[in-house]
């Protein structure tokens, strides 16, 4: 029974990226962000927006390290986001070589929607955790540690 439950969980996690992207697009419509929905953002673009929104003046190298993507991939994604008018490139007065990114007003809206979906997901997990007492949570924690260490 436990193995079947674990298999179902792994299947869910494998499909998570598609589920996450669909949930983001559903929230864009639900919260009235049709202008951002129309930009057909990929999950990787949302994650770059999220990284830029959470950090002050990140450059491509920083973003690639944070998201564990190549600088080439970040370059392509940021170019798309600039064309979609969700981010803008900036240069510092004393460093004209390096490009740093900031969010546009629409980029900030996309960032906020991404935050909302993570908040909703976190609330669901907290609700599940609240069903268990401290001893049970410790057992679950030990199990997850063992699983991660063995796999």
TrEMBL record:
SMART domains with a match to the protein in the record: HTH_MARR
Keywords, ordered alphabetically: DNA-binding, Transcription, Transcription regulation
PROSITE patterns, A to Z: HTH_MARR_1, HTH_MARR_2
Residue ranges of domain HTH marR-type in the record: 1-149
Domain of life (superkingdom): Bacteria
GO molecular function, one term: DNA binding
Family matches, as InterPro entries: HTH_MarR-typ, Metal_resp_HTH_trans_reg, Tscrpt_reg_MarR-type_CS, WH-like_DNA-bd_sf, WH_DNA-bd_sf
Database matches in SUPFAM superfamilies: Winged helix' DNA-binding domain
Pfam families documented for this protein: MarR
Name of the protein in its database record: MarR family transcriptional regulator
Source organism (scientific name): Desulfosporosinus fructosivorans
């Amino acid at each position: 029974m436990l193995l079947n439950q674990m298999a179902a969980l792994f299947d869910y996690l494998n499909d998570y990226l598609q589920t996450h992207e669909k949930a983001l697009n559903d929230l864009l419509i639900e919260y009235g962000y049709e202008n951002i929905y129309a930009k057909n953002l990929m999950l990787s673009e949302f994650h770059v927006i999220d990284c830029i929104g959470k950090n002050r003046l990140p450059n491509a190298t920083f973003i690639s390290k944070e998201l564990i993507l190549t600088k080439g991939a970040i370059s392509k994604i940021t170019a798309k986001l600039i064309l979609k008018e969700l981010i803008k490139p900036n240069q510092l007065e004393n460093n004209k070589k390096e490009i740093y990114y900031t969010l546009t007003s629409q980029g900030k809206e996309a960032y906020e929607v991404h935050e909302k979906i993570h908040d909703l997901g976190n609330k669901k997990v907290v609700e599940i955790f609240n069903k268990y007492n401290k001893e049970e949570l410790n057992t679950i924690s030990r199990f997850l540690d063992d699983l991660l260490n063995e796999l």
